[in-house]
Amino acid sequence: MARIINSTLVHLIKDGKYLMLHRTKKEGDYNKDKWIGVGGKLEPQESPEECAKRETLEETGLTMNSMDYRGIVTFVYEDITEYMHLFTSEDFSGEMKTCDEGDLEWVEISKVCDLPIWEGDKIFFKLMEDKEKNPFFSVKLVYNDEGELISHEENIYN
Asked: What pTM value is reported for the model?
């Protein structure tokens, strides 16, 4: 049976770096050994913004004081369609803690695409580079059962 998932992905930005999570600790993790931002699935009655704040706090110990809603990424894989709400924030506070899903690390923005990330992530990282040109976007990424990107579409909204 086909499933629909709503999730969030947050990229905190500091000193020209993204806070990235190297997913190494969670059993049965679809993102095992990949580098991703922080985030997770929306809970019942939760907005994307509430989820982004909650997941960021749970995974990093940091509180987002403000954030930018940058886009929606539609992932299609196996029998799942996932709508991932993408946020960035340069305005956060608190002390970073250890994450139980992997290792948190600040990575130079220019080097993120050199890490083991999903092929489709490179598409939305490129769109995030220029906030003036791409203030809000939608990307559809279709993966086959082996996790290979087989097609994508991009739309920019001003």
From this structure: 0.93
